[in-house]
Amino acid sequence: MHGTVDGFSYGLVTPVVACLMACLGGALGLHCTTRALLVAGSWRPGWLALASAATGSGIWSMHFVAMIGFTVEEAPVHYDRATTYASLAAAVVMVGVGIFIVGYRGTTGSALFTGGTITGLGIATMHYLGMVAMRLNGTLEYDTLVVAASVVVAVVAATAALWAAGQDRGPLWSVGGSLAMGLAASGMHYTGMAAVSVRLHGTGGTPAAGESPAALLVPMLAGPLSFLLLAGAVVLFDHRMVTGGAARIPAERKPGVPAGELVSHTARRPPSRIRRAPARAPRRGPVRVRFRTPQNR
């Protein structure tokens, strides 16, 4: 027996709030990634770590807010706390790997492809690990093609977001990157939820132990949301943002730097004075050697 699945129990409230959460986390994360490309030394890994945590917290909060609107009419839905927080750790770590690749290699083709793919897979891993945390009197079944489409949506949108973060061409690019990251998380989530169907075990069964969405709502807001506010305060009071930023420092092993930006060290050296030996005059004609004989004397 298949259960009646409803992903919009509260109408458009949960989708809109979930998308805003993803955009907020994406905006902070991409801004920190842009700042990391402007600095070097020990500041760069700090900004990238903050970007990873902010983006991961944002997309995890988006998933949980959206799952509040997910219900099965014939069976109550509960969540396992440990698995739910494990999905948060997976999001922060995998998204962080992708952000660090772009932060240190720049927005080149290979780095952007690798970082965007890992970031998109991190979003997908967070989503489906969060689905594993669900406890209900039934079994979740997935449409393989729709699941694959959801992963593609996450990878493409995450790659576009990282590319926009590396451009640093003004506030419109930052807004576009934030929307792309929000689309990566929200689009992947609702595409993946379209692949879900529930096969019930029976009408009189009792669901496995777990906590309701309302029981996990308070720690979710007190944890990742508080961190997002703290990250927003750090970004707001960043002296480079207040003073207008600094010149971009090329990322390590980042090709494509114009030749005019490189400093020629050979131009500082005085021209070396090389003494050349005078060239010998070429001999004209054969050399004749006369030997004196007794007859010639």
What does this protein look like?
The chain is 59% helix and 6% strand. With 297 residues, it is mainly alpha-helical. The strands form 3 sheets. Strands 1-2 form a two-stranded antiparallel ribbon. The N and C termini lie far apart (136 Å). Residues 241-251 and 254-268 have low confidence and may be disordered.
Strands, helices and their partners?
Blueprint: E1 5-6, H1 13-36, H2 43-68, E2 71-72, E3 78-79, H3 81-105, H4 109-132, E4 134-135, E5 138-142, H5 144-167, H6 171-193, E6 196-200, H7 213-236, H8 239-242
Antiparallel strand pairs: 1-2, 3-4, 5-6
Helix pairs in contact: 1-2, 1-5, 1-6, 1-7, 2-3, 2-4, 2-6, 2-7, 3-4, 4-5, 4-6, 5-6
For this entry, give a set of tags:
297 residues; mainly alpha; two-stranded antiparallel sheet; 6 strands
Rg computed from alpha carbons, rounded to a whole number of angstroms: 32 Å
Strands side by side in the biggest sheet? 1-2
Helix content: 55-70%
Strand content: 5-15%
Biggest sheet character:
2 strands, antiparallel
The coarse silhouette is elongated
Quote the distance from N terminus to C terminus.
Answer: 136 Å
Tally of DSSP β-strands: 6
In the predicted model, the low-confidence regions spanning at least 5 consecutive residues are: 241-251, 254-268
Integer average pLDDT: 77
Structural class by helix and strand composition: mainly alpha
Count of DSSP-assigned helices: 8
Element-by-element helix/strand order: EHHEEHHEEHHEHH
